[in-house]
Every structure is written in structure tokens, then in C-alpha cells.
Amino acid sequence: RIYRSIDEGKNWFQIASPADMNNSSVQALSFGAPNSNSNIVPIVGDNNFIYAGTQGGRIYVSVNGGVPWKLTAGLDGSAVQRIIANPISSRFDAYAVTLRGVYYLPDARVATPVWQNITGNLFSLQRTVLGVPGDLEQAITEITSLAVDWRGIGA
């Protein structure tokens, strides 16, 4: 279940049930930036643009505060660890990380938003074991976090 408050925590109400999220626990939430630009649709009020990532490896998006939720596509099916939405008003893109990949969503407004896999060579990176030349192991076996620097990205 996902709950939200619009009065600084005085009152809470449910915006997603387990059925809305394919009966999977939501562990990654992110608010997208509001959009007040009448030339760009949809108009999205403060705190109404929400991403929800599940342990079942899915990300849902809503631009109406949770009614309805739209399923996105393109992920690997492993648990969603983090979603980082663009904080710039009138932008609808985001990054996400699952245990097995890093993804970019160019536009959450489209009918079926599709995440692009940008994992690249992360899982082929190697490191030496105990400093022994030639004794190599995989450096990364899963991904659990992500930081995005949105500075310098234009509106």
C-alpha cells in the first residue's frame, strides 16, 4: 500500500493498494517535478507526479496523485532499488536502478513508458583479488543505489 498526506501529515489516505502494484511490495518511491506550463501537457500539480517501484521489478507512474497508475516497461524484473526523477519543472524523465541494471526513462507521459537499459559494462568490470595480478573477480554483482547529478540540465 502507498499512503500520502497533503496536509503535512495530519491526515493520510491510500493512493495505491497491493492490487494496483501487482501484489508486490513498493520499496522505491519518487516524486516527479510539477508542471505548470500550459504549453506542455499534462498539467501536473505539486506532489501529484509519482513513481512507485516494486520488489517484483516493476515501476508504475501516476501524474494524478495515484489515480490511475500506469505500468512502465523495459526493466529486467529484479527488485527496484531506487528511482530518481528529474526535479526540473515540466520535465518527465527519470533514472532507476534495479538489482541487475541502471535505466533511463525519457518521458513518463507516453502511453507505454519504456525504460532504456543504460547499464553498459558495469557487470563486466573486474578487480584483482587481494592485489594478486591475474587473480580477478567480478567487481559488481548487484546494484543497490544510484545518484544523479541534474545540475546543468536545461529546462
Descriptive terms for the model:
155 residues, mainly beta, 4-stranded antiparallel β-sheet, 12 strands, elongated
Helical content class: under 10%
N-to-C terminal Cα separation, in Å? 33 Å
What proportion strand? 25-35%
Average pLDDT level: 87
Which secondary-structure class do the elements indicate?
A: mainly beta
- Spans of at least 5 consecutive residues whose pLDDT stays below 50 are none
Radius of gyration: 18 Å
**Individual helix count:** 0
Q: In sequence order, what are the helices and strands, one letter per element?
A: EEEEEEEEEEEE
Strand order within the widest sheet? 3-4-5-6
Question: Would you count the extended β strands for me?
Answer: 12
Shape, please? elongated
Summarize the main sheet: 4 strands, antiparallel
Structure summarized in a few sentences:
The protein is an all-beta fold.
Describe the structure.
- The protein has 155 residues and is mostly beta strands.
- Helices cover 0% and strands 34% of the residues.
- The chain is built from no helices and twelve strands.
- The chain has strands at 2-4, 13-16, 26-31, 50-54, 59-62, 70-71, 80-85, 94-98, 101-105, 116-117, 126-129, 132-138.
- The strands form four sheets. It has a four-stranded antiparallel beta sheet with strand order 3-4-5-6, with no helix packed on it.
- It is elongated and about 60 Å long.
- The relative contact order is 0.16.
